[in-house]
Structures are given as C-alpha cells and as structure tokens.
Design brief:
This protein is 12% helix and 35% strand. With 375 residues, the protein is mostly beta strands. A hairpin with a 2-residue loop joins β4 and β5 (125-128).
Length: 375
C-alpha cells in the first residue's frame, strides 16, 4: 500500500480520485484518499470466485471473503464501507446470501427468498442495498464472526500487557487462609489494596518483560492469567484486609499475585482492513513463551494505537532475505529478496503494543519477523 505522502504525486500524475468532490473536514478527505489508494492496491477478485454464497453457522467473515477475494483483508473495499462502518460493522447472519456483482466488482447482501433485493439487476445479479438489520437483544450474538472467535475469546477479557507503573496500583494477595502457600479453587485469600467498588476480579502474575526489537527498551510486561476471584467480605473499620474466594483457577495463586477488575465479556465483530497509514512493526513474542508460531497462534507486535493500529487491521508478515555467499561468483556476498509469507489479524490494541492472530501462512513465524502494511 502506498504511503499517504504520495497522494500529491498521484494527483500530479493525473489520478483524479477527488475531482469534483468537496470535503467538510480534513478527516473526510483523509478517509477518501485512503479509500482511493486502497482501490489501487491488490483488492482483486479470484478468477474462479463463486456467483453467491449462502451464509451458514460456522462461517467467518474472513472465510467468506477468502472465497471471493485474492486478499481477504480487502473486505471493506468491495463492500464500499467507510471508516464508521469499520468501527461499527453491520451484522451478517446465517441464512443471508452474499452475491458477487461482477459488473461493479462488489459484494452484495440479501436475505434468502429475495427479501431486501431490489427490482433492478446488474449483470444478472440482484441489486441489493446493504442495510443493517436492527438487533436490540443479543447485540449481534447470532451474527457470524469475522475470524475464528473461539481462538481469541480468552484473550479479549484477560490482561495481556501490564504497564510497569500500573503494577503498583493494583490490589495484591498478601496471605492464604490457614497459612497455605498456594491457593486453589474455592479457597479463601486475603487481599490489600483499593478495590474501587469492584467485587469480581481477575488475578494475574507479572510475566516476562517484552522488549522492542528496534530499540531494546521494555515496552510492557506480559501478564500470566491465573484465575478469577470474588469478594467475600470487604475490609471493616478495624483494618484494610479484604477476604476473597477463588472462583476459577487456571493455576494455583500465591502471595504477590495481582488483581484487576473483571471486565464485561466483549461482543465485538471485527472487520478486516488495511491500516490507514504506512506501518512497519516487528514480532516481539509468541504467546506462550515459545520462539516460533504457526496458523491460529497469537503474536505480540511492537506497534499499537500510537502508531495508527486499530482492531481489525491486517498486516503482511515478512522475513528479511538472508545474506549469502554466491559460490558461482567468487563467494561474493549477496542479499536474497525479502519474502512475504502470510497475514496477521490485529484483535487487541494497546498504546505501544498489539496482539494479532496469525491467519494463513506459508512458513513459520519467528520472533523478530516484520509485520507491515500490505504491499
């Protein structure tokens, strides 16, 4: 994807994607420019794309997109979605039909039986206005997810990265009941610290320091989730020690483990899209403490919201080509080309870091590999 700084050059070359259009604000102009640049990227349909697809349970937005598109992250482009649609996506439900409008190179949505389908047609394909269905109850719980949600669900409500100064502000376990060293499910623990009115908490153990491969600086601490606790008795006037009961234990808790309030379970539909600006990041770690990863595993990157990443951003995975000696030319040093080998889908974003799900890859992912804007 071309940088936004090349827009002036594109205009000078005669690319009139904003000709005759006025914008109410610079932000609207930026969105239009980003859309125009995306139009000129690799958002192409597969030559053997089907005419339509009936949405069924078990489908994912990514999977449906991959049936039609060369790059599944082009989904917003072919639907003609704007920035607000990406932030607050429309729901797609089992039983609806996705049509491929070959004439206009767009995907369109309709209900089975033609409900919502217009009278006109484009190239023999029903013309459908994509209108969101109103869902108050369930908040889209029946809608198809964008990616395999079961893989990332545990990561949405658990603390993955804890900033160093935040550790000092969290309540902590100071003792187990009856002098035990470790605390298991159903057992009591004694906690000190400001609960700020909370009653349900997650318990985590500060983990390894995560260093930026580019700067060598610590950018966060990966937290190890150990379980959940519920307040049994708040501290009284005669002290500041709260009594908790372990509700769920992933592993035994111990003195020094930290508590943060239990967040509500998020219901989020992610729309895959390229970043709105040029981004080059590095793989900081593979979740679980290993050095390599494959499809459907979680990796941490050294860029976050401060660099322009948001939920749903798709980046291309790239490995720098090795420098070898050409034995056919007096052992001269030669650098092999860099290789793109897969995609990573960003599903959780912090200020200076983000976590992504590895989608399809042709090689293993290594710590230190590059994740960048799709080219």
């Amino acid at each position: 994807m071309k940088k936004f700084s090349t827009i002036a050059a594109l205009l000078a070359a005669g690319l009139s994607f904003t000709q005759g259009v006025s914008f109410a604000s610079p932000a609207e102009a930026t969105i239009a420019q980003a859309q125009a640049i995306a139009n000129n990227s690799k958002c192409t349909f597969l030559p053997d794309a089907p005419d339509k697809h009936l949405v069924v349970r078990g489908d994912t937005l990514w999977g449906i997109s991959a049936q039609f598109l060369q790059n599944p992250w082009c989904w917003p482009q072919v639907w003609g979605m704007n920035k607000e649609d990406i932030r607050n996506p429309h729901w797609i439900y089992p039983g609806q039909i996705v049509y491929f409008d070959r004439v206009n190179q767009r995907l369109r949505l309709a209900n089975v039986g033609g409900s919502g389908v217009g009278d006109g047609a484009a190239g023999g394909v029903p013309v459908v206005k994509w209108t969101p269905r109103s869902r108050v109850e369930g908040l889209g719980a029946d809608a198809i997810p964008s990616i395999p949600s079961a893989i990332i669900d545990p990561f949405l409500s658990q603390p993955l990265v804890i900033e160093r100064n935040a550790l000092d502000r969290t309540p902590r376990i100071i003792s187990a009941s009856e002098g035990r060293v470790n605390i298991g499910q159903g057992e009591k623990a004694y906690v000190r610290g400001d609960l700020d009115g909370g009653t349900s908490f997650q318990v985590f153990r500060p983990g390894v320091a995560l260093k930026d491969p580019d700067t060598g600086l610590v950018i966060g601490y990966e937290a190890a989730f150990v379980g959940t606790m519920k307040l049994d008795r708040e501290a009284g006037d005669d002290g500041d020690v709260h009594t908790f009961v372990v509700v769920k234990s992933k592993e035994e808790m111990s003195v020094g483990d930290r508590l943060i309030p239990q967040p509500p379970t998020p219901i989020i539909n992610y729309v895959p899209h390229p970043p709105s600006q040029e981004i080059k990041s590095r793989v900081v770690s593979v979740y679980g403490g290993v050095n390599v990863a494959g499809q459907n595993q979680i990796v941490a990157l050294n860029r976050g919201s401060e660099s322009g990443l948001d939920v749903g951003t798709v980046l291309s995975l790239e490995r720098h080509g090795e420098t070898i000696r050409d034995k056919t030319d007096d052992n001269r040093l030669v650098k092999l080309p860099d290789e793109l080998y897969g995609d990573v889908f960003i599903f959780r974003v912090f200020d200076t870091m983000s976590y992504g799900l590895i989608m399809q890859v042709k090689d293993i992912v290594k710590v230190g590999d590059v994740a960048r804007s799709p080219q």
